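input
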Amino acid sequence: MKGRPCEVYPNDMRVKVSATGLYTYPDAIVVCGEPRFEDAHVDTLLNPTLIVEVLSESTAAYDRGQKFAHYRGIESLTEYVLVAQDECRVEHFAKQSDRQWLQTVVQSPEAEIELVSIQGALRLREIYDRVF
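output
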């Protein structure tokens, strides 16, 4: 994020999906621009740009399905990234201009995912360094 107008928040920052009322704790969140919070406690973010979830056997179906359906209701959200724990696999969802989401799945350690919202790239070799 160095040199970019974005801030990274870890998994103790809550996100509220105002459209559905869901409160959730993503594994990582990026906000580009001015963050908006639900109240003066500054513990519930309303305008994430990018959300990252690390998949587990017990959460994978929910993260891909119902939770992502909620997340799509966040106007500011433009990218959603799912990182597998048990294999080298990253799923990237990018909001298109017609409000549809384009999914890209990469599994090669040499692969890289372009994250347009933060003007950066995610290298699988760095994600899975010393894991596989």
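quick obs: Residues 53 and 82 are 5 Å apart (CA to CA).
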